[in-house]
């Protein structure tokens, strides 16, 4: 198959995609790790939204793995606060099964394991948008589910709690 090149650059092509997304989808949320890819995506999405005066609120899902770097946690705090009036932040700290190669005896590690709080590497963030076992609106969550399934079930829950309208998830 031969490649077909357009007469626009990557930024312009992305703007065209955002035009389509904002016109065609009622709800949008971004899975945000605070890495370079999801960070750039979120900033560009918010810039587009502001430049085009779009009043739509964007959902932002951060799946906290408890053992993440301190600078990652600080980054999430800063970005959520920067956009707090334009986003629905979801900082998820729920027990989930994460594959691990660090043990000969266990194939999963469970961040935010409520049965072993004394072993937690981090403290729960003190934020009103924190989702944990004590305050969990995500009814599609299953206790200690696989991390990949938690991300998928968040999307299902988000759609259902936003009138089941067309959803675009990054």
Automatic annotation (TrEMBL):
UniProt domain Phosphoadenosine phosphosulphate reductase: residue ranges: 28-87
InterPro entries: PAPS_reduct_dom, Rossmann-like_a/b/a_fold
Single GO MF descriptor: catalytic activity
Record-level GO BP terms: cellular response to oxygen levels
Coiled-coil annotated residue ranges, if any: none
Name of the protein in question: Phosphoadenosine phosphosulfate reductase family protein
Source organism (scientific name): Tissierella praeacuta DSM 18095
